[in-house]
Amino acid sequence: MQIQLSKRAPPRDVRASDPSPMEQERRRQRRRITAAAEEEPRSVHDVPDELLRLILLLLDSPIWLVRAACACRRWRCAVADGGRTFLRLAGSFHPPAVVGHYHVRSCRPFAFVPSPALPIDGGRFSLDFIPAIKDWKVADCHGGLVLLRKLGGSLANLIIVCDPLTRRYQGIRHPSEKQLDQAYAAGAFLLDGEDGSISISNFRVLHCFHQGLRASVFVFVSTADGAGWRFLRQSTDAALAGSTDLSIWAWRPVKILDKSSLEFSDVDLPIRIDRSKLPRGSAFTVVHGAGPNPTSPPTTWIIHVHGDALEFFRLVRGGGAWVLEHSIPQLSEATRGLPGCHKVLKWRAVDVIAGGTGIAVVSARDSYKRGWLFSVDMGTKELQVVPEDRIKAYHRTTRTFTYTLPWPRSVLACLPP
User: Fold this and answer.
1) Do 257 and 134 share a structural domain?
2) Shared domain check, 259 and 135
3) Statement to judge: residues 405 and 276 lie in one domain
4) What are the pLDDT digits (tens) for 326-375?
């Protein structure tokens, strides 16, 4: 007897089965989204407002931020949203843009030298709108303003605060001569106004005078309801030596004047140079550089020059202590063998004539009064001879002042159509 076995149907493949209704609906949604994306390509205008503001905060120059605000109505509203909140936040994230330097020279007049990184017209920052400008010299730059002092330092003369961008200025008389009998002006510095902002009508001027071994400090306050000088304090054992965001007072002991709080503090610099040897005088210069990342505060150094020896002290953020980061016992030995530098047994005079952007420019002269310029990268302490194409800019320069472009104080939002 023959038995015929029937073939069993193969097991049903679940994966090959029809999708469930829920899966079908998901596929239809994906197809609709894909079709919409193909019909209407996404652009930068589809970026959410919160993400757009984060992108604009990455712009590290006020020039680029203003250009972005002029690009379209939506970007301008993003910058102007919340009044000055966005602009203050952007300014706190990035250091001001350096557009150039005012060079004070041994031969008049001073000159503005634009930064090679920015293609700008240097004539835009000329101070030719100041009457008798050849009789003045630059004393400080801060917040887009320039402070001028009369040559000669007579107390009967004025000081001038001006804004090169708006070509506005105002003169300020020195404190009463009765308060400064037999005194001479030692330094003048620009500060923010008492509300933390600065403009041609809202600023402060810190003015130092020497009376023998005493140093008197006055502060001029310019506000909408009037202006005037007020006495800050007097020191009997200090002398003003240099300034940027900090004012350094040197001798016995070294003192720091915080320009925001106007408070003095003693500084314990770990000086290793034997200052009992000639020359007797020391020079101190403050140099600022970029922080380790865009959101960190700038790094601050003090350069101490004694003869042809240099010491570099760095401020440790948080602790407020100064550490000896680098030293050059003899500049003549350190520069020997550099391309373009002649062999010199010892430099007769050494000065730091420029700083403020992480690069210090050191001027050195030999016994025959021949001069060379060296640049020091404050981050790496690399020493180089200044290239010949830049030497002309420093011709007879005794000091430079860094001019930074201020972040815009306000941007008006566009009106609705």
Assistant:
1) yes
2) yes
3) yes
4) 999 989 888 888 887 777 778 888 888 887 678 889 988 888 778 888 98
pTM: 0.74
Alpha-carbon distance 134 to 152, whole Å?
12
Contact indicator for 277, 268 with CB cutoff of 8 Å:
no
Integer Cα distance of 326 and 163 in angstroms: 38
Decide if 155 is inside a domain: yes
Mapping DSSP to helix (H, G, I), strand (E, B) and coil, where does residue 97 land? strand
Looking at the fold, whether 334 and 248 belong to one and the same domain comes out as no
- Alpha-carbon torsion (335, 338, 341, 342), positive or negative: positive
Q: Does residue 41 lie in a domain region?
A: no
pLDDT band at 310 (very low <50, low <70, confident <90, very high): very high
Residue type, 290: A
Of 64, 63, 65, give the one whose Cα is nearest residue 87: 65
DSSP 38: H
Q: 109 is written with which tokens?
A: 């007049």
At 185-200, the pLDDT tens digits run 667 888 888 877 788 8
Do the beta carbons of residue 294 and residue 338 sit within 8 Å? Answer: no
DSSP state of 151: T
Q: What would the pLDDT profile of 200-251 be if each residue is shown by its tens digit?
A: 888 888 877 766 656 677 778 876 555 677 766 655 444 343 444 444 544 4
Domain holding 334, by residue range, is 97-118+270-411
The tokens describing 103, both together, are 């060079």
Amino acid of residue 406: P
**DSSP string for 339-397:** TT----S--SEEEEEE-SSSEEEEEEE-TT--EEEEEEETTT--EEEPPHHHHGGGTTE
- For 151-197, strand residue ranges (E) read 158-163, 168-173, 184-191
